[in-house]
Recover the amino acids of this structure.
């Protein structure tokens, strides 16, 4: 039995910084992390499984979840809702599992209001120049669109002040290593270990 | 040039928990950490070397160092003085090096008053029974000294509340791994990275 709750780890950062790539790499090196499954109103694609890829919901169901506060965070993209169901995350945390959420900065701030005890990690590019290169590398957009994306990324970078940790995504390997270290270190934080501490002292009497 | 100061990492814990063993193992796996060498009036144990394990001092020499303010912290423990020469530590931190101090709990609290920004790690035994075994296993002391050590260790365990991190010394390897992770994570802490953050934002303009 595990009496300790798991850690809620929120990985976020500006658009284009490489959150998805780092998260995919983490899945390989951190098999003990539980990856949150999102809810969506978009229809399942062939092969997608309920509760594995997504929790599939109707608009009515999703809106009821919003009303009942059953989502840790949510947003609407291209006519579909996407969000993080609170129950799955809470059940995993109660079972002592660490849960990783990879989300956009707006969603991360919603989570922070509900779970200030979460571990908030902000992924940053090694330089603005490198972020520009990554945004350019994504595809063929006009100068105006690129400038807009960069402006948005700059505004998102200012959100760094709201996070506990800043991880530079210089290489995916290094970023993963730092995130793993943060998770290990957070488990050693004295305030989180207080219950075990009380037990150890009682044992000595 | 490194504009960032190094981290002062203070490793402490109750007598007999294995601070010395963990510290010796860290030396091998963390060549970038600078290890502060303590001064002491206790006689060398077999294999201990002057200037490597300790600076061995007479009581008169040690008291002169106290008077001159040459110690970052010092304490008298089971009839012997232990202390940390101040200048070396401060020079290394200014040069951007992380410095590890392995010290007794009384000394750690003195350092905390002077360096609240330090990283305070408390090493604990997996159980009180295991701590008793380790203290007995040393076999370098008489019964009275052992009883005294156990009583002191129990009182020292209560000091845990003053630390940032608690590391269970179940195996030396695991303890080292956790300490390395703590150092890595502390370097990622947002409040420590603020200067770099300001630079990154300015660069984007």
């Amino acid at each position: 039995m595990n009496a300790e709750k798991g850690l809620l780890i929120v990985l976020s950062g500006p658009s284009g910084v490489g959150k998805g790539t780092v998260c995919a790499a983490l899945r390989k090196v951190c098999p003990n992390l539980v990856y949150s499954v999102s809810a969506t109103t978009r229809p399942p694609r062939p092969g997608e499984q309920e509760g594995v890829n997504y929790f599939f919901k109707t608009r009515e169901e999703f809106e009821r979840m919003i009303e009942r506060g059953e989502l840790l965070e949510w947003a609407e993209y291209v006519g579909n809702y996407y969000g993080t169901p609170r129950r799955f995350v809470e059940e995993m945390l109660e079972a002592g599992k660490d849960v990783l959420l990879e989300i956009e900065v707006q969603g991360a701030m919603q989570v922070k209001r509900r779970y200030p005890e979460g571990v908030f990690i902000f992924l940053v590019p090694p330089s603005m120049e490198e972020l520009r290169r990554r945004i350019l590398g994504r595809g063929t957009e006009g100068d105006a669109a690129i400038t807009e994306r960069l402006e948005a990324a700059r505004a998102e970078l200012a959100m760094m002040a709201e996070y506990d940790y800043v991880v530079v995504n210089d290489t995916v390997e290094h970023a993963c290593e730092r995130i793993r270290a943060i998770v290990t270190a957070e488990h050693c934080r004295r305030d989180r270990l207080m219950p075990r501490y009380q037990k150890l002292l009682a044992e000595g009497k």
